[in-house]
Amino acid sequence: MKIEQAIKQDRFNDEYHKLFLNLLYTAGWLNIRQIQFFKQYDLSPQQFNILRILRGQYPNPASVNLLIERMLDKMSNASRLVDKLDAKGLVERRKCAADKRQVDVAITKKGMKLLEQIDKEIGNLDNMVGSLSKQEAKTMNELLDKMRG
Q: Is 72 helix (H, G, I), strand (E, B) or coil?
């Protein structure tokens, strides 16, 4: 669907303004679908992101600062997200041997099993961009990277 139809607006200041609105609208569209997908696993997209980071670190734990550094959503409260994942038994907190003030976070076996289950269906999210060819996806990735500098 064209952005003009989606937001019922047919005039824009210029192509840059239209692109900006189109990116915002598309990000929201993707986010809603992501939220719906992860809801079946009782996770938020941000919680899933933390689990993926921890799986990448496995068997080593990660500090909360490392999680913040690597998260896709920089506005998320990583400590609060870790609290929620800990309450679900998907991660565990450990005192850091090298720095007593630091708390390390590690994914549990339960968390790993949940990610294995999600991995089987995660393609459903990728299909949201499946209307693009591989070359179009590559070009879009290059353009988005260029835009962010």
A: coil
